[in-house]
Design a protein that fits this description.
Largest sheet: 2 strands, antiparallel
């Protein structure tokens, strides 16, 4: 448990971050492109649907990409920028490569938007729309996305240290999200994004073979589940292509199976299973597991709030012509 001093410090961080998020969110608005590019959201949704039809896993990639964008420099599209000869960008960090996917969907949407409304729709907004549509098209719900973000011009691999790692415990997760103005309950809610998608074995293999100095396997892992994971992720393997589904039963559907897995000690990451180690977060896991629609509504609200982190609006930033490179 956190000390009272740490809790007080955390409350101050949360309050400052929330005030900042509220001020920038007020500059975003639903229907931002109604007059300047009326079909913007429809074009993005079509590109996302096409991408999912080709590869169901793209949906998880786009939701995660929006999250990873917002947690580094704010929601301003820096995760989409390619590295150059003089700079290593965020997307080439081990935290993002090779796990992030869906860049081609963003490219497709951007190409079509530039053809219809040149220089109007930002890459950051495309990503926010695409995350919403990915959630909706995989069994979640749709929700209004505030838009008006502009694109940043900087992407630094070193700054991906802001991303919460899969090895974090519940206190570390709470602090990581608090720094971005998100509450502990919103952290638990957004963790539910792990209901879709996959993970590379390297992200959790220590739980199977090198948990700590006295125990090779994480004792919080269900034994049958651990045995199954070991079959798919052999000890000592250097094959970076080995992956397993994040959700044991419905890995392509946005539902509450993620929370039910945690209750059965089948949370894949340490950062998943740790949600049972705290009374408050364990209660939220239980509640979410019993309320599919309730969780979806909370997830939508948390995504909207997250989408306001550190945004560039007005005349700051730019509207990239190509999401992979800054304008010349």
């Amino acid at each position: 448990m956190m000390s009272s001093r740490k809790l007080a410090q955390l409350s101050v961080i949360c309050w400052v971050a929330v005030l900042f998020c509220q001020s920038v969110q007020s500059q975003l608005q639903v229907g931002f492109y109604t007059n300047s590019c009326r079909r913007a959201e429809l074009i993005v949704r079509s590109a996302v649907r096409d991408g999912i039809n080709k590869d169901r896993g793209v949906a998880a990639g786009l939701v995660r990409m929006h999250f990873h964008d917002c947690f580094v420099r704010g929601c301003e599209g820096s995760v989409l920028l390619d590295s150059t000869s003089s700079n290593s960008a965020e997307k080439d960090s081990p935290a993002n490569k090779p796990s992030l996917r869906g860049y081609e969907v963003v490219d497709d949407a951007k190409t079509k938007l530039e053809a219809e409304c040149r220089g109007v729709v930002s890459c950051a907004d495309i990503l926010a729309f695409a995350a919403r549509d990915s959630f909706d098209l995989t069994g979640g719900i749709s929700y209004d996305v505030q838009a008006g973000r502009r694109d940043g011009r900087v992407s630094l691999i070193a700054e991906t240290s802001d991303l919460p790692a899969p090895t974090l415990n519940v206190d570390q997760l709470t602090q990581s999200f608090a720094k971005k103005g998100l509450s502990q309950e919103e952290m638990v809610t957004l963790s539910g994004a792990h209901t879709i998608g996959r993970s590379h074995c390297t992200s959790f293999s220590d739980r199977l073979y090198k948990f700590n100095g006295t125990t090779s396997q994480d004792p919080s892992l269900d034994a049958t589940y651990a045995a199954s994971l070991k079959q798919k992720c052999p000890q000592g393997s250097t094959d970076s292509s080995l992956v397993v589904p994040m959700d044991t039963s419905t890995p392509t559907i946005s539902d509450v199976s993620y929370y039910r897995d945690i209750l059965a000690n089948r949370g894949l990451f340490t950062s998943d299973q740790t949600l049972l180690s705290n009374t408050a977060t364990a209660s939220q896991v239980n509640s979410n597991s019993r309320s599919p629609l309730g969780w979806k509504r909370k997830f939508a609200a948390a995504m909207v709030k997250m989408g306001g982190i550190g945004v560039l609006t007005g005349t700051t930033g730019e509207i990239r012509a190509n999401c992979r490179v800054i304008n010349s």
